[in-house]
Amino acid sequence: MKKKRFRLLFVLFAVLVIIMTGCGGNDVSTVGDEISSSKEEDNEKQATSNASQVIIGNSTELSGDWTEKWQNGAADSEFTLMSRSSTVENDGLGEFHINKSIIENHEIEDHEDGSRTYTLKLHDGLLWADGTELNAKNFVSTYLFWSAPALREMGAPANEGDKLVGYREYSSGEAKEFAGIRLIDDLTYSLTIDGENLPFYYEITLIQVPPIDINFWTSDDEIEILDDGNGVYLSKEITTAEHQDAISNARHAIPRPCNGAYEIVDYDPTAKMATAKLNPNYAGNWEGVKPTIETIIMKKINADTQFDELKTGSIDIIFQARGGEEINTGLDLEEEGGFKSFHYPRPGYGKLLFACDYGPTQFVEVRQAFAYLLDRVDFTNSFTGGYGSVVNGPYGEGQWMYQETKAELNERLNQYTYNPTEAVRLLEEGGWVLNSEGGP
After folding, report:
1. CA-CA distances (angstroms) from residue 161 to 67, 167, 208, 382?
2. Beta-sheet pairing, 53-58 with 339-344
3. Residue-wise pLDDT tens digits, 265-315
4. Mean of the per-residue pLDDT values for the chain?
5. Are the C-beta atoms of residues 294 and 277 closer than 8 Å to each other?
6. How far apart (Å, rounded) are the C-alpha atoms in residues 252 and 320?
7. CA distances from 227 to 159, 170, 224, 373 (A)
8. Which domains are assigned to the chain?
9. DSSP code of 145?
10. What DSSP letter does each residue of 6-37 carry, written as one string?
11. 0.85 cut: is pTM over it?
């Protein structure tokens, strides 16, 4: 039996995090305005301008594992995201968009069985950072590789495309073809979402995927992507015996295929520092915008000395300073002059959980009583140093749908304001009136 989880109070710690930027020789204070421009003529200037180097300080340590499939660290994931560009992108406010810098056009077709097919045509002329051609096979490869049975044997989730028709049969090894994926031509492919997974609010994310070079991952040039009419498949099966060592090495390899804004060019395991260079062949984000900073370096910093490093110019940016003490220190530094902070609400939340299928917490009145016994406002203020807020559901302050419906939600949902008297009443009504020895 799967254990149900109860999100006690749906507590949100929407911590306001800041980036402290030193306004020194790197002149990074103007970059935000440039990147925010969406004019096509500006984009070309951004892609070719001689921008500067920026050093980002991150309190999370880099490991040099450039794929999240085996649970790499947060810093690795954040750095890797710069090196890949997907067919669907998040605008930073929780809304997803087709990446028109990659996708020239797309069509949607509904079927009688409830499934839905997206046919995607790529722009001609897409390139990897090294100048080699990027085509539909690279996007199809992502599904075939990351959902292959052998990847599960190697400890990866092997769940890429798990909402598509034919996933179960392909990923289990029952079928060689992935029936819900069709390779139409060099620039066009289609994905069919299984009707059992529809409707889905974030449906567009079910077709979100970055490209890969499957030969890079396997070191096997014999593997080709084919489609004989029943779905895409690999000309040669990926196996643990033949390909595990190559795949393990590819996780950490530099250089590596890159279609994102930046190409990872170096990693120093001793200093825990990674370097990325501007990708000259980057197509742009979903708005067509390209960055201008030539070099980005991310290095491990100590939380106790991070602001000293910022002052001395050892780093240019402190990435995500969290908690009241850090934020207040940053704001004090900004007030002294020469530095700037950027505040944004976290698009996430924290919560306390109860198992709902056994023990006292399987009873709703017990869970509600706990909710009334926790002063969420006081708890959040203590935890975040005053830079947090409370919500009443599984959403974050930074999500656009919450921002648009905040007043209505707060009016309609139970606030569970701290109330010990109400907690006692609920427990008594539920029959929870005896002590541990069975007495009143």
Report:
1. 17, 7, 9, 42
2. unpaired
3. 999 999 999 999 999 999 999 999 999 999 999 999 998 999 999 999 999
4. 87
5. yes
6. 25
7. 21, 14, 10, 60
8. 5-12+353-429 (no CATH), 19-83+261-344 (3.40.190), 88-252 (3.90.76.10)
9. H
10. EEETT------EEEEEE-STT-GGGHHHHHH-
11. no
